[in-house]
Each structure stands twice: as structure tokens, then as C-alpha cells.
Amino acid sequence: MQAEVKWIEGFKFLGQSQSGHSIVMDGNGGETAPSPMEMVLMAAGGCSSVDVVDGLKSANQAVTVVNAKLTTERRETAPKIFTAINIHFEVSGDNLDEALVAKVTKDSLEKYCSVCLMLGAGVEMTHSWEII
User: Fold this and answer.
1) For residues 3 and 21, what is the distance between their CA atoms, to the nearest angstrom?
2) Are the C-beta atoms of residues 83 and 124 closer than 8 Å to each other?
3) Both 30 and 89 in a single domain?
4) Which of 17, 84, 87, 88 is deepest in the core (most CB within 10 A)?
């Protein structure tokens, strides 16, 4: 996998993925676009959400909604790395099996989500879930 990031102006950058997609990032605290750290956080939420949807669908669960709400703790001084991330999954559907929801959310962070596993090497990764 490859990507390229080009400086636009000020602290704006254009990220271009190998698959041909582009996104603007703002190193000025997210003033005009997501900051790079916000992108990392959204990547963790997106990657783990794919696992949760796939896991529930593979188990023949009638899932209709999966929202991942991420919260973090971050160092106060540079480098301002994340020290803890929690992903709270809000899941809706018809007659969802609580045990399966618990399993697929846990398995995502511990076995399948590449982004979370990478972050987990230096960040305390936790999760919670609820069926709505």
C-alpha cells in the first residue's frame, strides 16, 4: 500500500491514496479540514466498524446501524500522542444477539482491526457497546 501527501499552503496538505482517493488535512488544529490525528482516530473507527458489520452479518444478524463513537486521552506535551482510545459501538437491528455483539466488538480490537492493533502497541485500546 502506498500514499502521497502534498503540501498545499499554510498547514494544509492533500493526501492521495493508492486507490485514487484524496483528502485534505489541516495541521492547524483542524481549522479547515480534519487534522492528521483526527484522521488516525477516524481510521480506527472505520476499520473496527467494518469488522463489526462484517462479523454481525456473517453471523446472520439483522444489523441496521453501527455507529462508533471514539474518545481519547492524549499527552499534553509534544509529541501529543494518544495514550488511550475508547470505541463505543452503538448497534441497532432486529433481535440482535447480545453475546454476538460483545464478541464481534471485542474481536475487532483484539484480533482483526489492523489500525487498532497497530495503535494498541503503544495505546491503551478499550471498547464498549450497546444495542439501541
Assistant:
1) 10
2) yes
3) no
4) 87
Contact 107, 77 (CB under 8 A): no
- Side-chain-side CA neighbours of residue 33 (13 Å): 16
Same domain, 25 and 67: no
Grid look-up 471498547 returns 127
- Note down pLDDT in tens along the chain; length 132 residues: 999 999 999 999 999 999 999 999 999 988 899 999 999 999 999 999 999 999 999 999 999 999 999 999 999 999 999 999 999 999 999 999 999 999 999 999 999 999 999 998 888 899 999 999
Domain limits at 24?
1-34
Neighbours of 118 (CB within 10 A): 14
Q: Which amino acid is at 9?
A: E
